[in-house]
Design a protein that fits this description.
By secondary structure, the protein is an all-alpha fold. It is 69% helix and 0% strand.
């Protein structure tokens, strides 16, 4: 991107989009009126005052890396008219499909556009010309499924902007006239997309965005009156307060358990899959809070319910609720580590490692290392953390790195001078500079 940046309609629209700002809130932030920002966005006027231009430059500089990448795509790849909620009409049906995809790629979100069925792509692109009906909602469900399928295989920084953009489009659709059954489907896919946006923001340590989208997911679920959605939204939101996830002394186990008890309450009136999912995460939070008996009971219930569970719906909620034997073993093993039952934890985690995805494997290896710490075995603990760190660096998985640091923090002081522990600490310091921008391991 050329620098200094020439601020015009395209740049203002892109900045408003990635910041998810209104004219009034953005104007207040930079020191301009809402009317002035609106004129900039419409191309009726350009910012010329030196102080405003400096503020715009500074605002751009402060964007997160994934937001900056999204800004560049919006600015450089899309026609100006496609930066709004509606993509342009790209011509007749005789045009090449690749050209039609390219014209609307920003609205659908980068890599997802190439994977969504073309009929769904066209329907979403031309949404303004049609009522919000079952065909449009089905198209958005296809897109949500595509984005959800990328959740565990694509870098969070790459995917986050696309999911947030889709969640915003869906949220705007809720304000349009919709018949009852279609509204329920739209509420379900919107809540699911907002929860995925919150989860990705959590992975990227973007606290403001994670709170906003988790809160949106819960609000939409409450408004729907659907207990299944309520349970799912609560289960997703609990991650903000969980001491389990980072692996270190953070979080609020009491609040996470409280949210999960609410989720289980709503799940009682939902389907079997949702009940299993809620019990699955309640068990982990109980383990983190020291309730070993409650943890084991919840895991047993989750395993029983999962035997005949059939996930329903679309998007992130539907995909995240699939409780495979590997995932159940991961939960059991992680909880057993928290309960101090190392030998049983190692057995369960061995099963989890046999068929986990890249991100899950990072966590499973970190938990395996934690079990070896409980067994007072420093060498295998370091070996597992080394393997977890290899995967973490390959995926750019900052939260996985925090989990590894949490396990390293449990090492007894007398291990610090062991040669393989010192080698691990050197790697952690280097990885911290790459993944977190600083070294949290410098005190070791």
């Amino acid at each position: 991107m050329s620098w200094p940046l020439q601020w015009g309609m395209t740049e203002i629209r892109a900045l408003l989009e990635v910041r998810r700002d209104s004219h009034s809130s953005f104007g207040e932030y930079i020191g301009a009126s809402a009317q002035t920002v609106a004129r900039w966005e419409r191309g009726e006027q350009k910012p010329t005052h030196k102080q405003l231009l400096k503020t715009l430059d500074d605002t751009l500089e402060r964007l997160e890396p994934w937001q900056r990448e999204w800004f560049d795509k919006l600015r450089d790849q899309a026609p100006e008219s496609s930066l709004g909620p509606i993509a342009p009409d790209v011509g007749s049906g005789e045009e090449d499909q690749a050209d039609r995809r390219t014209a609307g790629k920003v609205m659908l979100g980068g890599i997802a556009a190439a994977l969504v069925p073309l009929d769904a792509f066209e329907r979403i692109r031309e949404a303004a010309a049609h009522p919000v009906d079952s065909k449009l909602i089905a198209a958005h469900e296809d897109l949500a499924d595509t984005l959800a399928s990328l959740h565990w295989t694509t870098g969070h920084d790459v995917l986050a902007g696309q999911v947030v953009h889709h969640a915003d489009i869906l949220t705007r659709l809720l304000d349009r006239p919709i018949v009852g059954a279609d509204r329920q489907r739209l509420e379900a896919v919107t809540a699911s997309s907002c929860a995925q946006a919150g989860m990705l923001a959590w992975h990227l340590n973007d606290r403001a965005t994670q709170r906003r989208y988790f809160a949106l997911a819960r609000t939409i679920a409450d408004d729907s009156g659907d207990d299944r959605l309520r349970a799912q939204a609560l289960t997703a939101a609990r991650i903000q307060h969980s001491p389990i996830e980072p692996g270190g002394p953070v979080g609020c186990d009491g609040r996470a358990v409280k949210l999960m008890r609410h989720a289980v309450y709503h799940a009682q009136r939902a389907d079997r899959t949702t009940r299993a999912f809620a019990q699955h995460w309640l068990g982990l939070e109980l383990a983190a809070s020291g309730d070993e008996r409650g943890f084991l009971e919840a895991c047993e219930i989750a395993a029983h319910l999962a035997e005949h569970a059939q996930p329903a719906g679309s998007g992130f909620f539907a995909r995240s609720q699939v409780l495979t034997p590997s995932r159940l073993s991961w939960t059991t093993g992680t909880g057993l580590v928290r309960a101090g039952r190392a030998a049983e934890a190692l057995q369960a985690l061995r099963i989890a490692l046999s068929s986990s995805g890249q991100f899950s494997t990072v966590i499973a290896r970190a938990e395996t290392a934690a079990a070896w710490v409980l067994q007072a075995e420093p060498e295998p603990a370091c070996q597992e953390l080394d393997r977890a760190l290899d995967l973490t660096l390959e995926a750019g998985y900052a939260k996985g790195f925090e989990r590894i640091l949490g396990v390293r923090g449990r090492f007894p002081d007398l291990w610090a001078e062991l040669p393989y522990v010192r080698e691990l600490d050197d790697r952690l310091r280097d990885a911290g500079r790459i993944l977190l921008g600083h070294s949290r391991a410098s005190s070791w």
